[in-house]
Target: NAD(P)H-dependent FMN reductase
Amino acid sequence: MSDAPHVVAICGSLREESYTRTALGVALDAAGRAGATTELLDLRALDLPVFDADAQDAGDAPELTRAVREADAVLLGTPMYHGSYSSVLKTALDYCGFDEFEDKTIGLLAVSGGRFPVTALDHLRSVCRALDAWVLPYQAVVPQAYQAIEDGDVTDEELRERVETLGRRVVQYASIEADPESFESEENVGA
Model:
């Protein structure tokens, strides 16, 4: 068994030529160069119906939750839709819970056609904190992705460095010792 941390990235975009998937690939490559094993969970390949609390093992949910639970760190990548993260990523996160995220290191990445995809990351940060995950203070954004990504690669050097740094940081902090449970986590038990 390897001591290398295992990093899983969840792509919250269903587009065939997704800028989010491209950026996550750059982050995962950097994580791999930093010594991690990596895996991309492409939500296009998973059958995840809209979450129903009475059917928590629907479709490929067990595969998703197993992969997240077994990871040492998770990268969440999303396009920004209407100031927040994508519905497909929301559905994936709804299938997960404390068993998957508690004390786990999380890195956040967002892309957008406009200038400021940061609010999507704020919303993801809140979700992850509610699950007692340890969210990196460092996050990466790719604004105006149509100008920064070409032919399946992040071609804007400054943005590429930010995305690669995210990949390295998620490996660097994959084994961080988590703080004691928060008051919020004890109150956040679901409906």
Observations:
- The chain has a mean pLDDT of 91.
- Strands lie at 6-11, 37-42, 73-79, 105-111, 134-135, 140-142, 149-150, 153-154.
